[in-house]
Structures are given as structure tokens and as C-alpha cells.
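1st attempt posting a full record on here, be nice pls
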Amino acid sequence: MPYLDGDDFEWIKDPDLVLTDRQLRLFQDFSSKNSSPYFSLAGIGGLLPDDEWGPPEISELGDPVVVSESRLFTFRAEQQLEPCPQNYTIDPGSEINLHQAKVGDYYNCYAIANATYQAGVTICDNCKIISPTVLQAQGPIQVIPDSLTPVALGVTATVGTRFRLSEYAAPLHNYTNRTFAIELTSRAYQAAWSAFAYYFGNQEDATDVQIALPTLRANVNPWRVYLWVGLHLSLLAFGFLFIFIQSRCSHPWVEDTAMAVFWLNTSEVSHQPDGQGTDPWRPGAELPKGQMLILEDAGERSRSVKIKGG
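the predicted structure (as C-alpha cells):
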């Protein structure tokens, strides 16, 4: 599996002091055939080569190597019609000068960082894969030499731009620019290496894997679990206690409350001898003074409402 381990990433205060003449020309070369990350307005940046954009020839793959180096990383911070600002806050606590490159009527403003990393591959035995080429967090991983590493690193810059153009696999820009740049480079290297390995590698060496669905791991507080279990058990116990008491009470428990009203016979109070019927269900109905409504048994599963004197 591809593996890039970032050791350090620091923004450079004065980028014009570290850029070579050959590297300066790369800020004017936006052609996609040379793997420049800036061929599109969506291009943010990537690892800056010493001479030209792009990887070595595929036919010139050498011996397996682990690329361990410090390389400049370019980050297009602004694109505007006015000259680039200086003492620019690229991240909280990091103020730098921006390298300025004018193309047409626009000024492209670049922040430069020094990235130190190791790139290669790794072997993982019986490990958990949460998505293609992505392992679940585990202990330290050993970087192993591989022949495809140099060519994969050569196209990481343009692959990152392709991510943003397709809106696929690009990291969310919710954190610092430093974090975004590191994650974008790592994802771009993994994607480039996987593509080269698929098209130019030995498919007989492919490994059968079962990829699990990405899941969230809950942070469980045991006391909250015990509290909710206790509350539910208490409610259950009180429910059984209520049923037990009602079953032995002189007032039988009505099982179907929606049908209870149909079991009440109000004919005794709605047709009084004086013709002044009193409907107990009519809002505002008043009983004669000294009388009240009485609920009496009127046969199996039936109750009768009557008016009786107090």
C-alpha cells in the first residue's frame, strides 16, 4: 500500500530567498501536459520540483527507493488584480511574505513552505481497511522502498487539482492551510501510486481484501448507560405494579380506553320525568342542587350513569 509520512511542514517567511531561477519559471507554466497544479483556477498547489513539472519517464523506473527529502511546497493563497500583500497571515500565528507572479491582468500570490517527508509503500498483515488504500489507525508503520514512488510524487501536484475539479476525495478546507496542504499531498500521492500500480504493476500479486464500511466509533460513558437502563427498568416495574393493583381494585381497569365511552349508558339522566333532561356530556350542563352523577354496574362490561341525591 502507498504510504507518505510527513515529518515537518513549515511556512517560509521570505520565499523569494529560497526559490531558484528554474523554479521561478514554473510559476508561469500552467500547461496541464507538464503536470502543473495551476492550469486551473481550482489549483491550490503541491510539491515544487527542481526543474519541471511531472514525473520521470515510466520506462525509466529504477530500483526500489524510499524518498526521504525536504522539498518546497507551493500554495496559491490569492489571485487578484492588485499586487500581493506582504506580512500575510497564512495560518494563525504565521505571517509570511507572498511570492508574486503576474499572468495577464492577475497577480497570483503564493505561500511557500518547506515540507519534510518520507514516501514509499508499506506492508500490512491482517489489518483493517476502512476504504481503498486507507488503513484504520494503528501503531507505527514501516516505510518500504518501491519503484513507483518517484513517478507518483511527480504528479501529486496535478492530482490534487484534479481532486478539486471533480470535487472527489479532496480534503475539507475546514482547518489550517498547513493541515489542508499535508492531507492533500498525502491523498494525491496515494491516488497516483495506486493508479500506476494498477496499470503498470503485476496484477498476479493483487491481494484479496474485504473492505468494511466506514463507521463512527462511539465514546461511551458507562454511568449514562446505567442511568438510562435504571430509568427504563423503573418505569417497567411501575407499569407492572399498576396492572397488578388495578386487577385487584374494586374499580375494574378498562383495557380499551377508546371504547370506554360507549359502555356508559346515559339514558337515565338524559330523559328525566320533568322533561328537563340533563346531558352529562354537554358543555356547561349543570346538575340540580344536591344531586350528583353516579356510575353503577349495568351488566357485563357496561356501566350506567344516573343522577342521585346527595
